[in-house]
Amino acid sequence: VDNDRKDLDMNSNDVDAEKITRFVRMNELRLVTEYNPVTAIGVMQSSFELHLLLITDKMSPKHPERMRRYRVAAELFKGKILFILVDSNLKSNERTMSFFQLKKSQLPALAIFHTPDEEQDVLTLDEVSVERVQDFCNRFLQ
Fold first, then answer.
1. Distance CA 58, CA 55 (A)
2. Whole-model pTM?
3. What is the number of other CB atoms lying within 10 angstroms of the CB of residue 35?
4. Residue 66: which of 55, 82, 52 has the closest Cα?
5. Which CDD domains match (predicted)?
6. pLDDT tens digits for 49-65?
7. 20 vs 63, residue with greater confidence
8. Largest Cα–Cα distance of the chain, in whole Å?
9. Which of 26, 37, 56, 137 has the fewest CB atoms within 10 Å, i.e. the most exposed one?
10. Is the dihedral of CA 31, 32, 37, 43 positive or negative?
11. What are the extents of the domains in the chain?
12. CATH topology of domain 32-141
């Protein structure tokens, strides 16, 4: 995950198939997966039921700092929510924006989606902060 090595302690007596599977699932994806035509199938077939999308302009000068904060928040929900980046500049992502009824003037925005029942919520942002992402996710989880 993001060039950071994680090790599972195999010397522990309580390691079983379920714990190994959980370890692999939690660490097989990047903290933030960029949504595009190549990754779309993997995102949709993910075992995660909750997807949090940051819909933003990757060309913005604020993008690197937004992504830094978004990754920090992703670490807090690792194994619970799949964090996804949607570049608003890609023509192929226009459908995603329209699904959440968002216009470019409302970006950046967070959109959370629960796949089994298609429940969703959207939050437009002035700026991405770890606290705002965390609060938004916690409210939806409750």
1. 9
2. 0.79
3. 23
4. 55
5. PDI_b'_family
6. 999 999 999 999 999 99
7. 63
8. 54
9. 37
10. positive
11. 32-141
12. Glutaredoxin (3.40.30)
